[in-house]
Amino acid sequence: MLFDFLWKHRRHYVKKSVVINKYKCGGLNFLDFASLNNTFKINWLKQYLADPDSFWNILPNIVFSKVGGLPFLLFCNYSITKLPLKLSNFHKQVLLAWHLIYKHNFSPHSYFIWNNGDILYKNKSLFFPNWVRYIILVSQLLNFNGYLYSYSEFLNKYNIPVTPREFAIVMDAIPTGAISLLKDSTRLQFSLSMIHPFDTVIGKICFLSTSSGRNKRITQLFQDEITSLPYIVSHWNGLFENIPWKKSVDSVI
After folding, report:
1. Does 40 have pLDDT greater than 70?
2. What does the buried/exposed string (b/e) look like for 129-161 if buried means 16 or more CB atoms within 10 Å of the residue's CB?
3. Taking the domains of the chain in order of start, what are their residue ranges?
């Protein structure tokens, strides 16, 4: 609707991904409503994390406790449709908004077992509360030779009261590709106490910033993922070196 208004309900002559870009990048700094809506969802996360014991958070606490709590889930490589939860549309949108800006860059050393969209049992991700206190990463399930522990090796290593059925479910769900990547890697120690969204670069922008421009910066995080440069920028860059685009735009504005 906003873009129809911009073009007076006529043909759109410039791509939406260009129009929403910054002035200095050849755009019109136009608002993308989907990005703004996602910003509202991130603001809900901020309010939740600031006071998780609030009366208004009783229901989310009950729902997300089944996967280790919302702060823990935010660090997991989750797939919304694979979580063993019945989520409202609002909570799905919140998780999607976070997933769009927090990148779970794959690393064998930080490959979570729990709530992982790649590690599935009956097409749902796993979360076993009695394991999480001691074991979080796939790398913790491998012995010195780079193979998955046997049941007896696992019990001797961790001394956790785990049933053979639970053990089999977890081990069978680990992708063979992940095991292959970990075989020749040095495993790192990991502490659950280190996990909190506030500790991430994205978290500092979304949750700790108090300035009046915070919403604008959050919205920009989303728009950076969907913007593109107009073809004319690459055209002129091919003809001339070091064009001061920002200075040129500032002089026009």
Report:
1. yes
2. eebeeebbbbbbbbeeeeebbeeeebeeeeeee
3. 2-104+196-252, 108-194
Q: Which two tokens stand for residue 131?
A: 């394991």
Place of tokens 């979570």: 112
Cβ burial 175-206 (10 Å sphere, 16+ → b, else e): eeebbebbeeeeeeebeeeebebeeeebbebb
CA nearest neighbour of 116 among 97, 102, 137: 137
Q: Give dist(CA 34, CA 16) in Å, integer.
A: 12
Nearest to 78 by CA among 121, 123, 119, 108: 119
Q: How big is the chain by its Cα radius of gyration, in Å?
A: 23
Write down the pTM of the prediction: 0.80
Is the per-residue pLDDT at 192 higher than 50? no
Sign of the torsion formed by the C-alpha atoms of 24, 26, 30 and 36: negative
Q: Rounded to an integer, what distance in angstroms lies between the CA atom of residue 153 and that of residue 169?
A: 16
Distance between CA atoms of residues 230 and 203, nearest Å: 31
Q: What does the pLDDT look like over 218-237, one tens digit per residue?
A: 888 888 877 777 776 776 67
